[in-house]
Every structure is written in C-alpha cells, then in structure tokens.
Amino acid sequence: MTALETVKLYYQCFNQKNWNGMLILLDPDVRHEANQGEVRIGAEKFTEFLQSMDESYEEILTVMVLLSEPTGKRVAAEFIVNGIYKKAEKGMPEAYGQSYVLPAGAFLEIKEGRISRVTTYYNLPLWIDLVSKAK
After folding, report:
1. Per-residue pLDDT of the chain (135 residues; tens, 9 = 90+)
2. DSSP string, 11-57
3. pTM, whole model, 2 decimals?
C-alpha cells in the first residue's frame, strides 16, 4: 500500500468508527500531535485518545483532500469535520448534542507502511464559538 492509500484507509476507518482498523495502521510508537494539549507517544496513548473522543464526539469527515509529497512518506489531509458534541471535556463548554461543521487539516508520516505521526490542526476558538452558540 502507498502512503496515500494507507491514509485514505485510515480516514475511511475513522468515518466507519472502525477504531481497530485505524489502530492496525499505526506504528506502535506513533507520535500523535493534537491541535491542543500534549503530544501522545505510542499506540496505547492513541487508543485512550480514541476512546475519549468516541465518548465526547460523533464525527464524520467530508470533503476529504489528500496530497502526498514525492518521496511518498508524508501525506497532507484537508477535510470538513461534521460533528455532534455529546459529552463535555474538562475545560470545554457544556455539551448537550450541539452540532458543528469545522474545517480541519492533518499531516501524517508513514514509516515502513504504517502511520508513525499524526498532526492535526483546527481552529479551537471557532469550534468553541460554534458549540457555545448552538441551540
């Protein structure tokens, strides 16, 4: 599988809530650099992150654009997050099923056929504004 195919499958698994499918595609020492907060190292920490996300958010990614660089080791992703905020996380607004649509992006690195780094970016103040104003 190429890096582009690996990342495409990774996001297909995300949209299908196939967490095990996502985890299989990760290097055991994956580096997860989320938009906010500390860097997570390792598949175990990534698994904990997925569990927390699954409890708090219902998300589907649409309008996916994937780009690979010439060596095939890195992939950039741009997408729209269509979500429902189910459960509040510490320091975040109250959750009561608000829906949101938010542009986001990610950079992924592939090593020996597995995803070794996931770096995700989105506009957190915009997300907070969207869920705070939702009725």
Report:
1. 899 999 999 999 999 999 999 999 999 999 999 888 889 999 999 999 999 999 999 999 999 999 999 998 999 999 999 999 999 988 899 999 999 999 999 999 999 999 999 999 999 999 999 999 866
2. HHHHHTT-HHHHHHTEEEEEEEE-SSS--EESHHHHHHHHHHHHHHE
3. 0.93
Are the CB atoms for 13 and 22 separated by under 8 Å? yes
- 62's tokens: 């649409």
Token pair 């599988």 in the structure block, residue: 1
The residue assigned the tokens 């598949």 is 43
Residues 134/100, Cβ–Cβ less than 8 Å? yes
**Beta strands per DSSP E along the chain:** 26-33, 40-41, 57-68, 74-85, 98-111, 114-122
